[in-house]
Amino acid sequence: MLIRQQTEQWEMEHLLSYxxxxxxxxxxxxxxxxxxxxTCYQRDRDRIIHSKAFRRLKFKTQVFIAPEGDHxxxxxxxxxxxAQIARTIAxxxxxxxxxxxxxxxxxxxxxxxxxxxxxxxxxxxxxxGFRHNCQSIRVVEKIEGGKGLNLTWEVRDGILHHTGPMKxxxxxGQTVKFSDRIxxxxxxxxxxxxxxxxxxxxxxxxxxxxxxxKHSSRINTMVKDIIQNSxxxxxxxxxxxxxxxxxxxxxxxxxxxxxxSPAKVEEKKAxxxxxxxxxxxxxxxxxxxxxxxxxxxxxxxxxxxxAGMTDRYAVTxxxxxxxxxxxxxx
Length: 330
What we know:
There is one protein chain. By secondary structure, the chain is mainly α. It has one domain (about 40-315): Hypothetical protein af1432. The chain is built from 15 helices and no strands. It has helices at about 5-15, 40-50, 50-55, 75-95, 95-105, 115-125, 130-145, 155-160, 170-195, 205-210, 215-230, 240-260, 265-285, 300-310, 310-320. The radius of gyration is 21 Å and the shape is flat. About 45% of the residues are buried.
């Protein structure tokens, strides 16, 4: 018996009945031979990790645009924190840890440079709008390598529905959806305090009494609550008390950090930069790299290119295009 088959058999015998089993996947867009060692979800995880889109996440903003300190989160470190939280929950619930990890690692592959400021800029100018979760699906289905990564249906469903009103079809996808929110609420508080945007004493005291007054204790409280309320269930869920406290913390972040705070003063410049780049390439599409010269509508191709840029690459391209040589700062 192949190692993959042994793993598939172990899943059938040990995972929760509601868990997604790799041997029962709905499959890939294009059928292919199975690996002798890895399950389909393990292969998906590996394909994501080895992708260029994944590597670019280390130079994409999470919240703080071009932070001067080395300890602020990037889109990559956010992704790794989501994966860690999601895997902890998945293991405790006896659902598919490999599928959970693959979804977590791929959920933000389509995010723009400059975080949600970049997403907002493209959403305002792209016909039909722009959502980073939908762009993540384009990355794994088409853009990466010119033909996508050919991931399983379950991974793509989890990536697409990690945000927004739709619930992922699998418990693993639902776990990532919760883990994404747990991760960014807590690490954005941490970064905002480090950046002197807020003080710890500014945080809603009622929430801290319920969740804990330290970064680690809040994550621990949320994770344990999900495990306790989801164990053996067909849905992933939180208790009303913990969910309410988490949502209140999120609302606090929107009011004090995400909108109008000193952390966001540079966002207008970032949005204008991406708008300028977008319209430039619409009018100079011959300058798009070869992998973006396909048969898609011009607006789609330019959006794919600009959305895939890192922060520093976008700045470099803007400088080359719009700033005279003699005025550039080397």
